[in-house]
Amino acid sequence: MKDEIIADADQRMQKTIVSLEDSFKRIRTGRAHPSILDNVMVSYYGTDTLLNQLANVNVEEGRTLLISPWEKNIIGEVEKAILKSDLGLNPSNNGDTIRVPMPPLTEETRKEYTKQAKNEAENARVAVRNIRRDANSDLKGLEKEKAISEDDQRRAEDQVQKLTNKYIVDIDSAYAVKETDLLSF
């Protein structure tokens, strides 16, 4: 039973890291990367569909994204969706493809994005600590029901704490990488 609690906590903490990495992908850096457009929804025959399900998105010349829709008649919709996405991007189409140049980041926007990344990292830390609290609470419940001994409870809580420490370190290193990426010119 206690092993299931620890395994569940580990799994939930891993999901928190995956979620943090997804959040970091949405914070753009000065370089072009196809994942920036991962959450752009395009109206496709009346249905909102993810852009990457309607087109190829590639990096061209390091600072430009090249979007090649599979159907030429949706180019206008793709362009509108990118403009409405609040990413601050200005797409231009030539009839067959759409080019999206990445504007260089100013010092101020770099700091703003760094602040946003720091908030995402802090939210992930809080989530990991909440998972630890839940697991410890479940372990205390098992001990009260006499399903495990007090020593087993303490050992299990130590395992949960080690997991927590490991994932906090993972969060901190992911943030450090993102911060370096954002602040490098």
Question: What features would you highlight for this structure?
Answer:
58% helix, two-stranded antiparallel sheet, 6 strands, 185 residues, four-stranded antiparallel sheet, single chain, alpha+beta
Number of helical runs?
4
| Envelope shape | elongated
CA distance, first residue to last residue:
51 Å
Number of strands: 6
Give the fraction of residues assigned to helices. Answer: 55-70%
Q: Helix/strand-derived class?
A: alpha+beta
Overall average pLDDT = 88
Describe the sheet with the most strands.
Answer: 4 strands, antiparallel
- Cα gyration radius (Å): 22 Å
Strand content: 5-15%
SSE succession: HEEEEHEEHH
Low-confidence parts lasting 5 or more residues at pLDDT below 50? none
What is the topology, as strand order, of the major beta sheet?
Answer: 3-4-6-5
SSE layout and pairing:
Blueprint: H1 2-26, E1 41-44, E2 47-50, E3 55-60, E4 64-69, H2 75-84, E5 92-93, E6 98-101, H3 107-144, H4 150-183
Antiparallel strand pairs: 1-2, 3-4, 4-6, 5-6
Would you kindly provide a written description of the structure presented here, covering whatever features stand out?
The protein has 185 residues and is α+β, with helices and mostly antiparallel strands. 58% of the residues lie in helices and 14% in strands. It has four helices and six strands. The chain has helices at residues 2-26, 75-84, 107-144, 150-183, and strands at residues 41-44, 47-50, 55-60, 64-69, 92-93, 98-101. The chain has a four-stranded antiparallel β-sheet, with helices on one face. Strands 1-2 form a two-stranded antiparallel ribbon. Helix 1 (2-26) runs antiparallel to helix 3 (107-144), helix 1 runs parallel beside helix 4 (150-183) and helix 3 (107-144) packs antiparallel against helix 4. The model has no long low-confidence stretch (mean pLDDT 88).
